[in-house]
Amino acid sequence: MKKIILPALFLITTCAYAQQSDESTIKLIFDKELTEGKSYSMLEYLTTSIGSRLSGSPGAAAAVEWSRHTLEGFSDQVILQPVMVPHWVRGQKEIGRIVNSRKMGTVEMNICALGGSVGTGTTGLVGNIVEVKSFDELKQMGSKNIQGKIVFFNRPMDPTKIGTFAAYGGAVDQRGSGASEAAKYGALGVIVRSMGLNLEDYPHTGGLRYAPNIPKIPAVAIATRHAEILSKLLKDDSNLQFYFETHCQTLEDAPSFNVIGELKGSEFPEEIIVVSGHLDSWDLAQGAHDDGAGCVQAIEVIRLFKIMGYKPKRTIRAVMYMNEENGLRGGIEYAKQAELKKEKHIAAIESDRGGFTPRGFTMTASEEVKNKIKSWKPLFEPYGLTDFNQSGGGADIGPLEPQGVPVIGFLPDSQRYFDHHHTPVDNFESVNKRELELGAASMAALVYLIDHYGLK
Questions:
Q1: Which stretches within 184-292 are classed as H helix?
Q2: Fewest CB within a 10 Å sphere: which of 35, 154, 286, 440?
């Protein structure tokens, strides 16, 4: 009988994982990432060599191919999941200016078109301005005061909200629905104060949603500092006029893909754990925090387990969704296919809050699941993760929730996120290497615990 001699590394690895405590395994995950991590170099390539990745664009197509190729090095299989996505293009740079200020004459304003907006064309759009802070105020003014004018939505994010996502949620409706709300009363176009807490010279883009059966009017965001200037000048001169010119348009839907890298489970392969980010980004910058960071952190979970020799009990998928920013088509399609195939997802984790210092995880799940995850909190506290009390998951994993899937969001520190979100400064140099790596390790640690113990 032939004697089989197993490689020493295999024996050491197998025995080690059989004997290691959770504390030492999690420490190994963090140690590996902080000394041998590839998340930062992956992010550098994605952002500086590929750049912006708005759905339907050549950059998005290149990012799909890069993700596929990268995941092939660490995964048991890579799946390209087809999805048709919106294809909106910005066109040439926008022009915005006050044209008749009594105090300052013509004043250039920093604006950008909102994603999905119709354009003005070369003739541009000019009109008197009406400033409002809310949809109720708009309604009270009515068609008599709005017809033929440009509505300026100038409600700032609330600086007293310590959680900046709460501040964002309190202001973003004017960006998302402001154009259609103003069009109900005959407005020519809208200007929306950018979704940022600081006074900045650059505008923040972001998606809008046109309501059905209401005229589509052009919509732009204005830099917060320039919003303050415009508001002050309006108080001195109610006849102030604004001119803006945009060349954006929506083309036919384009074919694209979600990219899925998979490690097959050794004991319960039918049980799936998703760890994810969204591959698309806005077109003003490189999409480093939103959401290149989340993508490379998700890929890094797979890579870390591979280099550690960790064999998961359950199937782990790193999913790069396409089209979170202006349609959510990728997340919807992934959930649709999961339901059609009757796949059993036991958890879905998403990183889409930037590559900042880890603080914890948000959760939308049953009390039983939340309590089980909270019971692991002592394992994360040495690494600075202490907040496990907030609800939420993520936009792309949200469509899995109706199927009974616990959805979990990676929660980094939020104080700087909206300095970069949807802006021209969301570039590679704004991401801190150590913070990014700590986030990747945090996500890998949670995936390890869910894989090892399940959530029931």
A1: 224-236
A2: 35
